[in-house]
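Justification of computing resources. Each target in the renewal requires a structure prediction run like the one illustrated here; the chain below, 293 residues long, is used simply to show the kind of job we budget for.
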Amino acid sequence: MTQSALNPTPPVRAALALELRPGSAAGSDALAQEQAGELGALIAADLAGFAAEATALDLVLVGAHYDPVELLRPGWPLHHELEQLSARAPGERGGRVIAFGAHQGRLPGALAPSPEHRGGPLRLLPLTLTGDPAVLAAVGAALEDDLMERGMAGAATALLAQETFGLQLEHVRYLTLHDLCAMTALQYEHAGLKPLWPLLETALLAPGDEAWLDAPPEPLLHYAGGEARIALFSPDGWRNRYAPGEGDEARLERGFARFEARQRQLSALLQAHGVPVTYAHCRSRLDPHDELA
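Resulting structure tokens:
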């Protein structure tokens, strides 16, 4: 499909991934403006090493780090906020490094990291490249091909990030958002959350599409219209769908309690990723798919 005003070339959206050493202190969430600028200059040099044409694009970043769930949300809100803020930056476009830092302890716009998601072992500094569509396409393809395999940050970049944020870092590397999605999918699989990923992936990459989680004994979920709907069953309705041949009342009670806990877990994860969740009470005599459609 050709690019046009209605179908523009998207920015190249990526992140600097900071992998903390086990047991390390949380450090600082955000850098002052001058420190953010210094880090931005080193990041620009690193990216030019992966794709030389990146020097012709504007690099936009914030001197702050976030949990992966704060980046992986429909519409990529942190990256979108960076792009909106950078559109008002002075200067001729192309080849600029636009780094946003904290002023009097506050970051501009909606860039403040969420205290709710502090403390994880992986923190991400979002960055975006904007500029000429042809250059964006070439640089984006190069980064998608290379970063997952050889995206380690330069030694100077890693050292400055460690010193300025006050973190003890195991690894510092670059990832595109698609790389981050792939890595998160693998992590969720290891955490027993593999059945939810296709629905979450749809919300992130194709938010106008629909997706179902329909894989008993998992809860029944339907994503459509930008929200996820979860089917709520009465104990009898749950038994009819999930345990029709079970006669042990104590086992049924434990199974239903585990089912409700799983619903809460999936709901919390979707909401952490910025996907609105609603519940639909499903009457036992009706097809629950019709209730969620």
